[in-house]
Amino acid sequence: MQREDRNESVSDTAPTENNGRNGAKDVRDAIRGSLIGGAAGEPRDYVARAYQDWLRTQEEPFRRERNEQDNGMYQNGISWLLDVPELFAARAPGITCLNALEKARRSNEQIEDYIRNPRNNSKGCGGVMRVAPVGLHGGRPGSEETRLQRDMEAAQIAAITHGHSLGYMPAAMLCHIVSRTVFHDGDRPTLKTIVLEAKDAAQKLFAGDENLPYLCELTDRAVALSENADGDLDNIHLLGEGWVAEEALAIAIYCALRHQDDFSAALIASVNHKGDSDSTGAILGNILGAWVGYAGIDEKWKTDIEIADVILELADDLCDGFTVTERGDAGDPAWISKYVYGQAYRQKR
Hints:
Shape: globular
Oligomer: single chain
Radius of gyration: 20 Å
Mean pLDDT: 85
């Protein structure tokens, strides 16, 4: 996000209109922090269908009458986010994502394992950028087996659109980092420990993959660079430009470790380089937003974020989950409306 013609960089100032892109003390605060820092059968099944809803937002105008035309659940889209008019705008979507989702729509194929049945050989960063919420799935630390299953689910979700192993293995690592940051028994491990745990988890999940050694080496390099005395820009350029998933994750890890107690400094470092700065900033926001929590993010980064209310609503829904009353009735009609019927909740008057 550097302008070579004017030698300008993003600085420690409040974001201007539409520029805010921000990523745990208690669990709710951590979840809010991670989602606002980044702007749920198996999650991959729901996600694959929700991606088709998103594709519609890039191709069709918003239709306020959608709810009135629906006669039952999922008749006209699975996601209540189709009731958010602001999402119906082209936002420079990645060609790889568009092509993968268009291919899925044409074939109408039902895929259970996206890693074994890749749609392409892309290792772009579009897959890893979207999986942070998977790390929040389940609402508890879980056993090592459970954590590995969660990490693999993130990899499968990334593989919906990015089939190269370097496209989906970093997604498993990011999921692990977010999950271990938010959910932990006893004292929270250091962020460095969590990053190294994520690397170890990837080695268990993807043992034998020919690209795994490079991913691990790049992760180790990011950790080492975060501890030297050199400038951020020089260090970041030793990790790449962030156009591909492993580089984007490495840059985010570096910035998070280097500035783990200063969200603003980390965010500024993550977007001030010559590469895919919006992607590296988004991943950094997921990691450090979870680490410092929503309350730990400076107010200036929470100002003028588009549909911030929707992001926070999603975060709270993910935290609360489905609840029932003592009589066994659904405890939250809004949750039922959104996640059973796929419609935004409108309280009856």
